[in-house]
Amino acid sequence: MTVEILVVLAILLLAVVSFALDRVPADVTALGVMLSLVFTGVLPPERAFAGFGSHTVMMILGLLIMTAALQRSGVVEVAGRELIRRAGAHPERLLLIVIIAVAVVSTFMSNTAATAFFLPVVFGVASKLGQSPSRYLLPLAFASILTSSVTLISTSTNLVVSELLTQYGLGPMGMFELAPVGIPITIVGLIYIWTAGIRLMPNTDGDAGPQKDYGLRPYLTEVLVLEGSPLVGKTLAESGIGRDMDLTIVRVLRKGTYISPRRNTKLSAGDVLLLEGYRENILKVKEISGIEIKADATLSSPHVENEPTIVEAVLLPGSPLLDRTLESISFRQRYDLQVLAINRAGATLIRKLSDIRLRLGDVLLVQGDPGSIRALDEGRLLSILTAVDLPRRDSRKAKTALAIFLGAMLLGTFEVMPFSVACLAGAVVSFVTRTIAPEEAYREVEWKALILIGSMLSLGAAMQETGTERYLADLFLSFVGSPSPYLLLSVFFILTLLLTQPMSNQAAAVVIVPIAIQTAVRLGLPPRPLVLMVAVAASCSYLTPLEPSCLMVYGPGKYRFRDFFIVGLPLTFVIFAIALLLVPFFWPFQ
Q1: CA 132, CA 209: separation in Å to the nearest integer?
Q2: Distance between CA 410 and CA 222 in Å, rounded?
Q3: What are the beta bridge partners of residue 251?
Q4: E strands present in 357-421
Q5: Which one-letter DSSP state was computed for residue 266?
Q6: Nearest partner of 201 among 148, 145, 147, 141, judged by Cα
Q7: Count of CB atoms within 10 A of residue 379's CB?
Q8: Rounded Cα–Cα distance for residues 168 and 457 (Å)
Q9: Sign of the CA dihedral 338, 343, 347, 348?
Q10: Would the pLDDT of 87 be above 70?
Q11: Which of 155, 339, 378, 554 is 20 to 30 A from 403, comparing alpha carbons?
Q12: pTM
């Protein structure tokens, strides 16, 4: 063992401990690893920093920008909402559609982003069906991870593995190279989640979902059918307002008369619909042509129209608004603000907003310029709970965003140009066509992931430069002798699986892949089967809630740490069995 190898092993050990303790953010630990390699003289600065200019980092940057454009333009939302709509009022069907939908979406985008998108959707639909959201959240997270081995871009871990392959003079991973293993894993895994997995989950039916954490209060709002609207003459059923937007039509107000809503009730210009639904769904009305939130249709202040800010505000004791109606105090004219919707816990409101007497604890969705809203809070009329981001989705750009993304994927898949170039080209075209503004895209980029990957690639370079991977491979073979290929695959799967628990998936891959390559070389075997086995194992993040997708549902689902182990252990065994059978079949050792 040389001094350089000893230094690299010491840095590696400290990194594993830091990842495990989680006292320091993972990206900061990775930066520390990179700088340690420079300070100890193991790598020169240009070699240590080369990871940030790698194909992998550039490809991920382009993908994140194009994914942000898909989300901003509403492509992902429309697809997900349509799939969820088909669930109807059947909890079992909802579970199946949720896990299939998130699996399809996460095949071509980050599993974390897919989970983040479906999380509020699942909360809303589950609450509407009277089901505990906890029944769906853990399956949601697991389903998003299952497709990690279907495409090259399913997870950044695959991109890191592909980069390591090229560093050792081997061909990079193809777009669908892992699909022969990943697709069976996804299908069997979804079946497991829908059948056995759901039965192993804790009984949380009595838990009320933490609605306050996700803005899921049921509000009442008024929506005006505009002159010339394409909805005029259509029935409520044909309009799809309630069904497609997940809103309940409480009453129809026509020329001062309340009409009970029926499926065959035809809409007329000037009709006011009293709708009940969650905040996010109500705000989506702003994107639909032909209807408008009534407050928006009667704006009197140019500031409200041009620079709208939306907040949730609650009525507290002593407010002069208590037991008054909005109309009686001329709220809009006096305070230069619009009340878009009202929430009253435990009550169903069926009157016009202007006729509702406000009570202690009512939550109002208020729109106006920041100065007027600040004055409202300072005057103790209302207490501001939280600011609400206005939806910025531009559905007109949806087709453009989708075409750019698919075009980049096709160019990379058919090797017209390298994937990294195709993804960056797609990002630039997204900017040029104004599908997304650069400022918006840069806010959506997960910079921590890029820093983590770019920094940890320096560790892989150090292991190769100093011969650490050869040393560890020899050490491994001295213990196991000349193992069979199946034993090799099993050992590297387990090693990777264990290392992914305290470390990130990408960091674990950086450590294990070089050892796997050198072990195969020492035994005279092709390295690719072992490397691809490591790639599959690195994405098996089911035993603990430390994977980002699992962390997102851990608190809201009111799960315990062991719940992930109980449900995830059988799934891990299933994935291991499928990989052990199929990896040597599609990538033989001969």
Answers
A1: 6
A2: 45
A3: 274
A4: 363-368, 383-388
A5: B
A6: 141
A7: 11
A8: 13
A9: positive
A10: no
A11: 155
A12: 0.64
3-state secondary structure of 274: strand
Angle between helices 111-128 and 55-72 (to 10 degrees): 30
| Residue 493 burial (CB count, 10 A) | 24
Reduced DSSP (H G I as helix, E B as strand, rest coil) percent helix, strand, coil of the chain, to 5: 60, 10, 30
Do the Cβ atoms of 441 and 68 come closer than 8 Å?
A: yes
* Rounded Cα distance, 171 and 86, in Å: 43
Taken as a whole, the chain contains a residue count of 590
pLDDT category at 568 given cuts 50, 70, 90 is very high
Q: What is the three-class DSSP state of 236? A: helix
572 pLDDT above the threshold of 80: yes
Task: Give, as one character, the DSSP assignment of residue 235.
Answer: B
**pLDDT band, very low/low/confident/very high, at 125 (cuts 50, 70, 90):** low
Give the whole-angstrom CA distance, residue 222 versus residue 197.
42
The per-residue DSSP string of 204-221 comes to: -TTPPP-GGGGT--EEEE
Name residue 275's beta-bridge partners: 221, 249
Residue 356 carries which DSSP code?
Answer: P
Cβ contact 269:230 at 8 Å = no
Q: Closest Cα partner for 145 from 583, 553, 581? A: 553
CA within 13 Å, CB half, 523: 24
Structure tokens that stand for 100 in this block: 């299939």
Tokens in use for 138? 């853990």
Reading the block at residue 457, the tokens are 């690639």
Q: What is the pLDDT of residue 130?
A: 67
**Spatial CA neighbour of 134 closest among 85, 81, 192, 203:** 203
User: Tokens for 239?
Assistant: 């309009």
Helices 528-538 and 179-192 pack at an angle, to 10 degrees, of 30
Query: Do 380 and 316 meet the contact criterion of CB atoms below 8 Å apart?
Result: yes
| Number of CB atoms found within 10 A of residue 533's CB | 26
Give the DSSP H/E element, type plus range, for residue 332: helix 331-335
* Cβ–Cβ under 8 Å, residues 432 and 51: no
Q: Amino acid letter at 423?
A: C
Decide: 218 and 276 in contact? Cβ < 8 Å: yes
The overall longest dimension of the chain from CA atoms, in Å, is 88
Which one-letter amino acid corresponds to residue 466? T
